[in-house]
Amino acid sequence: MKKQLPLILTAVVALFIIFANFTFYGTEKELTGKIDRYFLISQAAAFMIGAINLTRIHTTNILRKRGGYHNSIALLLCLWGFFILGLIQSNSGPTYKWIYEATIVPMEATMFSVVAFFIASAAYRAFKVKSLESAVLLISALIVMLGNVPIGSVLWSGFPEAKDWLMSVPNSGAFRGITIGTYIGAFATSLRILLGLERAHLGARD
Amino acid sequence: MLEKLERVDRRIIFLVLALALIIPLFAPIGLPLTISPPTRAFYEVMESLPEGSILWFGCEYSPGASGELNPQLAAVFRHAMSRNLRVILFSLWQDGPVLARSVVDPIAEEMGKVYGVDYVNLGYKPGGVSALRTILHDVWAGCANVDIDGTALSELPLMSEVRAIDPDTIKAVIVFSSGSPGDGDYLTYWTEPLGIILMSGQVAVQVPTRMPQLQSGQQKGLIPGLSGAAEYETLMGKPSTATQLMDCQSMAHLAIIIFLIIGNIGYLGTVFGKKGGKE
Amino acid sequence: MTPTQTTLAAIGTLALFTYLYKENAIFRFAEHCMIGLAAAHSLVMTWDNYWKPTLTKDIPGGEWYLIIPLLLGLLIYARYFGKISWYAKIPMSLWVGYGVGYTLAYNPRPFLTQVTATFLKLNTFDNVLFLLCAICVLAYFLFTVSHEKAKSVKYMSWFGRFAIMVALGASFGNTVQGRLSLLIGRIRFLLEDWLKIISLG
User: Fold this and answer.
1) How many domains does chain A contain in total?
2) Which residues of chain B lie closer than 8 angstroms to A145, CB-CB?
3) Which of A195, B184, B243, C46 is 20 to 30 A from C100 via CA?
4) Closest by alpha carbon to B258, among A115, A146, C168?
5) What is the 8-class DSSP label of residue C45?
6) Are residues C87 and C114 in the same domain?
7) Domain that holds residue C117
8) Could you say which of 3.40.1790.10, 1.10.10.60, 3.40.50.10160, 3.40.50.720 is the CATH number of the domain covering B37-239?
9) Would an 8 Å CB–CB cutoff place C192 in contact with chain A?
């Protein structure tokens, strides 16, 4: 029961979705729209999982006074304080919006932007011509970098054209192969799940 | 001696990169831009759309990508408004509509465009791909009959023409995309089955992966990153923020390339130094 | 943004930038606050867009059957309760089945478009190279055939590796541009919006 039921449910739901999308019956009865709505609501019910896990980890940090536990206190205060504020005001409340604009927006953008520095540093350290493959990689990167910015065409007027060619022919061809492979992989995995051969999502390790 | 070139402290690299980005902000160089074919294709499709056409703008990004996608959205929205095209903004990302509003509202005001008539912001619709499918057949119901501010869609004249997503209503879907859900989902569930034109503004990271879709015609045009936004501004004859920022890009790229070369000279120095030592 | 908001945003930005010098207490504090706030924001958005309308409008409005998916979703929390933890597999299996169904129903179409668009007229060098790159990359990922025994697959795979290198190089080049754009955005915020020492308009 514990093992069979989830597998049967997965297969039944998958087959039902396919049936609903491939037949006039599904379209006429507006089944697909309804299923989407039920799915969204059921998934929304799980919205606390992340917060619960964060709370468990950081509460343990605080109780055991692990190094930097004061940061865990700050995290939990921000998490539950801001959530309660959101419940009281909704996400369009003035104080809520004020905090959102002053903290989440700039800090998230900064987190992503910091990567630029590490890309520069990593390129300097790791981008070495150690083999023919790495030489091709480096040359391709240099052409694209110089073709992407105006300084490239100042150095050599052919860089933008070379970049456009590289992007639309060999790069596009290679990514076509990768895309086709990805689709085939997605179909294969989906079929394996449908047939009950793939059970990782149910916690099986085999 | 050459080996030392391999051991530059990372903080020196950071400092040089920061300076390369900051100096052009104070002393702009104004290097000329070259227009890439995907951006030109995007622009030409926009030019070919009949006046009054309704475009669907998917603003699928978060603050992390706003540095690249806000300038793109600004350029394309300005172009759409200047051609009297009408725009519906929408997002599957919770921050998308807020970011988009900060971009389009000032432009609309400057150009004398009216909210509800020339453009509408439907706001955030949660649920990702499922939400896309939900609004496909009934946009009003899918958006709970309200726009981003809770205004009833029945009070917005533009929305009276948009009840469902089909090629007769929506002439093109333009997705400003920084991940998933994004242009790939619009392609799978909307534009490919319905035969609607799809174009996208992409964060630069995603551009190489979207080239096959451009080649196959699944996407008719593509704006690549900040450089694409600058190219679009140039095509419109209205150089703006993105164009100004390309000088910073140029200098920073040059700095990284110089470090790449230094690193490789250092590496070759180490390799040949070891070989020399053995001999 | 108000001046106070701008100052707070600048402090947050600078606090995160301190990581560039080295890992430090200021960065860790800012990082933890950001994670807490971002997680809370996500909760609030889900509450406002799903829970609130479902509980206050839809279910009282006659759509009582929405309680069923809601309860099914709530079963995911069973994972925290030892003996009944396996109940959490029920919503998980429903969601995965849903995803599998849509993958198999909708993805074949764009997939086939990609496949058909690969077979170009071989009348130009570019078209030949494009096809070669696509097929050889596929060969590179072909693991069911021994690359040592099947020489043709071996050579195609060898060429495919170079095509992948070109594509990865292109990806790197574009990633540099992308990340720099975001960094420019932050530097611009600090200099233009906060310190007001430049004006780009």
Assistant:
1) 2
2) 253, 256-257
3) C46
4) A146
5) H
6) no
7) 109-201
8) 3.40.50.10160
9) no
Mean per-residue pLDDT, A114-141 = 93
Q: Is A89 on the interface with C (CB under 8 A)?
A: no
How far, CA to CA in Å, does C33 sit from each of A70, A114, C6, C164, C188? 11, 17, 17, 40, 24
Domain ranges of chain B: 2-28+247-278, 37-239
> Can you give the pTM of this predicted structure?
0.91
State mean pLDDT over B13-18: 96
Q: Average pLDDT of B183-208?
A: 95
Contacts of C46 in chain B (CB under 8 A): 126
Distance from CA of A60 to the nearest CA of B (A): 31
Residue-wise pLDDT for B224-267, tens only, equals 999 999 999 999 998 888 999 999 999 999 999 999 999 999 88
Interface residues from chain C to B (CB-CB < 8 Å): 20-21, 41-42, 45-46, 49-50, 53, 102, 106-107, 109-110, 113-114, 116-117, 130, 167, 170-171, 174-188, 191, 198, 200-201
Of all residues in chain A, the one with the smallest CA distance to C44 is A86
Residue A92 makes CB contacts below 8 A (sequence gap 6+) with: none
pLDDT higher than threshold 70 for residue B182? yes
Does C93 contact chain A (CB < 8 Å)?
A: yes
pLDDT above 90: residue A1: no
Asked if pLDDT for residue B130 goes beyond 80, the answer is yes
For chain A, percent helix, then strand, then coil, each to nearest 5? 80, 0, 20
Q: Is it true that the peptide bond before B181 is cis, omega within 30 degrees of 0?
A: yes
Indicate the average pLDDT of chain A: 91
Q: Where are the alpha helices (DSSP H) in B58-95?
A: 66-82
